[in-house]
Design goal:
Length: about 625
């Protein structure tokens, strides 16, 4: 167990180290490595409390890091050195770690500058993971802390790993991603000589510089963007719906003003109900509410399916979706309610809640939340009534917040990076999707995956049309979605095969298109082939999809039944990746019935794992 006296020593060491380097600038060293004498492959309790060799290497602890960064806005600076004497830095203007109840999430990381490359960007919003507590964004099969031999804010898995193994420079391929690496500096097969992580309270100009996407061009409002850059021209396009920071703007307004919006986009504003409806009417949006109290603590509420109706519905709060966050769900109480202002009463109370609460909102009765209320200073006397900027599930009804920000953004139509994302393409509802960067670069959407045979792929037409399985295990995305994805814009296809002897091959097709239900999900195009697995899908091009209960193969045989699978059978197939999972070589009795690809291991071999992926042909790589 980590002793309080050692924690005190760490704080002194951090302060002393920062004083030697930047004493005038107020930096506190929170992690330092330079010798490899200290083991960083530790459990959750150690990372929570912190640890040290009482000399040159230490980590201040997640709880201390949370307490520091949540007390007031902080910036982060990371200094890296390789064994050739080169140094690089990565700096972030805003850095926040949430508390243990949220897994010490890397909640805020914005405005990168430096020359190391932004290899921490891909870990933003991730919870901390250790070998005994898995919070990463990987599939359920493994823990990234075990793979990377450290503790970190792993996604799936890591593009930086500063708490990984200390391994002295160049690494063998088998040790890739296990060292103390920063991918954009020396890559995943290089373990750095030293690293130092430092934080300090954010400078006043840095605090003031943060801006948000205030509106979209199509809404004919100016855009003010600046947060979320990754150093490679990648910006999260959150649209600012509401911003309140100092109480200079009156929010006790009539229906017409709330319809059109009001305020200054560089300060306090509301985007307007009509704009909010136009944004959310045709695309699924997520909603993010950021709250800050007068003590500097911050909380958030996130909803994954936000929609506001039109004026004929009185801008009803039609949908919120699922809640996540640490502020509490104080908005669901108002789901399905019309908007109310002092001159248009649409709530359920016998009184006008907008008058009673001195602010407009989607009132049910008059309780739970009111982010358009009066700007009051912190706690206020109950005799005033519940009239502040309130969110009851955090600080209760008699606390008015210092800062409030409401943001919204549409879901992406293609994979932004590795992990599970909600995607949205025309023709189908928004859906969760698995995105992969490990096999063929970034931007790939996994449409089918098999690796242990636990999921039955001998299924009927309805199941193949809708999709089946779990994204964390084996699955097929569904023919209806596959058509919508490939019809939305030109796509390429990547097929990955792995045998039981450790070999792997791939087949790439540069123009992949699946028809619609009326066209029986015909494989309309494949494009040019490249790869080392052989072109075993070409025989299936222009074929309709077949299942055991709907045979669309070209010959007299019922190929779905004969091959014990489903596929774009011709008469019958040179590949059958939705066939039986048979574990390698199999007897002639099962010839052509396994998960085979004829041009590599023939028709009597069923692969250990397969993965089929698509991505837009116009994809711009982040790598």
């Amino acid at each position: 167990m980590f002793k309080p006296c050692i924690l005190f020593a760490i704080v002194l060491l951090a302060s002393a180290t920062s004083a030697q380097q930047k004493d005038a600038d107020g930096w506190t060293v929170v992690a330092q490595r330079s010798t490899g004498n200290l083991n960083f492959y530790r459990n959750w309790a150690d990372y929570k409390a912190g640890f040290s060799d009482q000399a040159e290497e230490f980590f201040i602890g997640l709880e201390n890091l949370h307490q520091m960064t949540s007390s007031e806005p902080h910036e982060l600076s990371i200094v890296l050195e390789d064994f050739d004497g080169q140094t690089r830095t990565a700096n972030y203007a805003e850095f926040l770690i949430n508390g243990e109840d949220d897994g010490y999430r890397l909640a805020v990381l914005t405005n990168y500058t430096g020359d190391a490359g932004n290899s921490l960007y891909w870990h933003r919003r991730m919870r901390f993971t250790t070998y005994d507590r898995k919070n990463d964004g990987s599939m359920a099969m493994y823990n990234c802390a075990d793979i990377a031999m450290g503790g970190w804010w792993y996604d799936n898995c890591s593009y930086s790993n500063l708490f990984g193994l200390y391994m002295n420079g160049e690494l063998e391929t088998r040790n890739a991603r296990k060292g103390m690496y920063w991918e954009m500096f020396r890559g995943i097969q290089y373990s750095l000589k030293s690293m130092k992580m430092m934080v300090r309270p954010a400078a006043a100009n840095a605090k003031a510089s943060k801006t948000i996407c205030a509106a979209a061009d199509r809404l004919r409002l100016p855009i003010a963007c600046g947060n979320g850059t990754d150093g490679n021209s990648t910006t999260e396009r959150w649209i600012g719906v509401l911003n309140r920071t100092d109480g200079n703007l009156n929010f006790y307004r009539d229906w017409q003003e709330y319809k059109l919006g009001f305020g200054d986009l560089s300060n306090e504003f509301f985007i307007g109900l009509e704009s909010l409806h136009n944004m959310t009417a045709n695309q699924t949006h997520e909603l993010l509410i950021n709250l800050q109290d007068f003590n500097g603590s911050s909380r958030y509420a996130h909803y994954d399916n936000f929609k506001v109706g039109n004026e004929n519905s009185s801008y009803t709060l039609e949908s919120l979706g699922n809640y996540t966050g640490n502020a509490g769900d104080s908005l669901v109480y108002h789901l399905g309610m019309k908007f109310t202002t002092y001159d248009r009463d649409n709530d359920r109370s016998e009184h006008n809640c907008a008058v009673e609460r001195m602010g407009a909102w989607w009132y049910n009765w008059c309780n739970n939340s009111n982010l358009f209320g009066m700007y009051l200073k912190s706690d206020y006397n109950a005799t005033i009534g519940v009239r502040g900027i309130t969110w009851w599930d955090w600080r209760g009804p008699y606390y008015s917040y210092k800062k409030v920000q409401i943001l919204s953004q549409p879901y992406p139509s293609s994979c932004p990076w590795a992990g599970i994302y909600t995607l949205q393409v025309p023709g189908v509802s928004a859906f969760p999707a698995l995105c992969d960067v490990s096999l063929a670069g970034d931007g790939w959407l996994v449409i089918a995956r098999r690796f242990d045979g636990h999921e039955n792929f001998y299924r009927n037409w309805t199941q193949y049309e809708a999709g089946f399985g779990e994204l964390t295990g084996e699955f097929f995305i569904g023919l209806d979605r596959l058509h919508a994805i490939t019809a939305s814009q030109p796509h390429e296809l990547y097929v990955y095969l792995e045998d039981f002897e450790g070999g792997s091959r791939y087949a790439h097709y540069d123009d992949f298109l699946i028809g619609n239900a009326t066209e029986l999900y015909n494989m309309q195009a494949l494009g040019a082939y490249s790869g080392d697995a052989g072109d075993s899908l070409r025989y299936q091009e222009h074929m309709n999809f077949t299942t055991y209960d709907k045979d669309h193969s070209t010959g007299k045989r019922k190929c779905g039944i004969l091959r014990l699978g489903a596929w774009w059978y011709n008469d019958c197939a040179h590949s059958n990746l939705f066939g039986l999972y048979l574990g390698g070589d199999y007897a002639m009795d099962f010839d052509y019935k396994g998960m085979f690809w004829i041009d590599w291991r023939g028709t009597e071999y069923s692969y250990k794992s397969i993965q089929m992926m698509v991505r837009p042909k116009r994809h711009c790589s982040k790598l």
